[in-house]
UniProtKB/TrEMBL annotation:
This is Reticulon-like protein. One of its GO terms (cellular component) is endoplasmic reticulum membrane. The lineage of its organism: Eukaryota, Viridiplantae, Streptophyta, Embryophyta, Tracheophyta. Keywords: Endoplasmic reticulum, Membrane, Transmembrane, Transmembrane helix. It is a multi-pass membrane protein. PROSITE patterns: RETICULON. The keyword Cytoplasm does not apply.
Amino acid sequence: MGSSDRLFSRQRTIHQILGGGLFADVMLWRQKNLTAGILVVTLAAWVVFEVSGYTLVSLSSSVFLLLFTILFLWAKSAAILNRPAPPLPHLHLSEEVINEAATLIRNHINVLLSVFEDIALGRDSKMFIKVALSLLLMSVIGSFTDFLTLGYISLFIVLTVPALYERYEDHNDTYSLKSYRKLQHLYTRFDAVCINKVQKWILEAKKLS
């Protein structure tokens, strides 16, 4: 299948689009044990929260209290009995790691602020519709489930949909292209009928004021 027959005429593989490396390997099930482990651990955490009634704060506090108590008693008894201390690595974040994380966070925040500015100033009608539909979808889904369940479902989708898409890539691209072209046609009609009228109304209101 040529690049023109791919969704968005892309030339890169799904693995490359996801950034390559371990992150892409996990999402595409190329590290099957790790991906399955993440799903199982997350499912176990979801069951613990739902069945036991623990909240994230209470469970985290209990786990850390137990961990610190064990390590403290281990270290004290080791000193008394002349035994080796707990085998802990040196816990330290380098300045380089902090700077990289700060740069990554800053870049993402700037992208979000740029999108917000474009929407607020009416520069990008397509982005406004995308964001509005996404927020509406999140609102509808959120009304049927709680945050924890939504988080697990989202993780499950992230770890399954890309892998299934890659496995049946040719069929998915064929049907997705047809649907995408139909949506583009519908948006063009919507833009011509509604968005342009709203923009003209705003301009006329500004002139009158």
